[in-house]
Amino acid sequence: MTKLLAALVAGLFSAAVFAQATPATPATPATPAAPEAKTEKKAEKKTAKKDTMAKADKKEDKAAAKTEKKAKKTAKKDAKKEEKKS
Predict the structure, then answer these.
(1) Nearest to 38 by CA among 46, 50, 30
(2) Containing H/E element for 57?
């Protein structure tokens, strides 16, 4: 009985020692991205914004030209109506 008790106590101590063993080495943290990549992304965003602004300006110009054409057509029609009336 004493041998059994001694074996159990020895096993308990060995389990405690095993549980306190040094943990595995932690993983190395990821290195941050280079600041150049951030500036490149910012530059790309700026050029994208410029492109969209340019497209918006072109659309506005087209719309303005369209309204001018319509105004000219209506002015011509009105002039023709006036000529017919007189």
Answers:
(1) 46
(2) helix 35-85
Whether the pTM exceeds 0.85: the reply is: no
Structure tokens at 15: 């389990």
Q: Up-side HSE of residue 76: CA atoms within 13 Å toward CB?
A: 6
Whether the per-residue pLDDT at 10 is higher than 70: the answer is yes
User: For 53-80, how does the pLDDT look when each residue is reduced to its tens digit (9 = 90+)?
Assistant: 777 778 888 888 888 888 888 888 788 7
Spell out a b/e string for 53-75, using b for 16 or more CB atoms within 10 Å of the CB, else e.
eeeeeeeeeeeeeeeeeeeeeee
> Residue 79 corresponds to which tokens in the numbers above?
């002039």
Dihedral over alpha carbons 41, 42, 44, 47 (to 10 degrees): 180
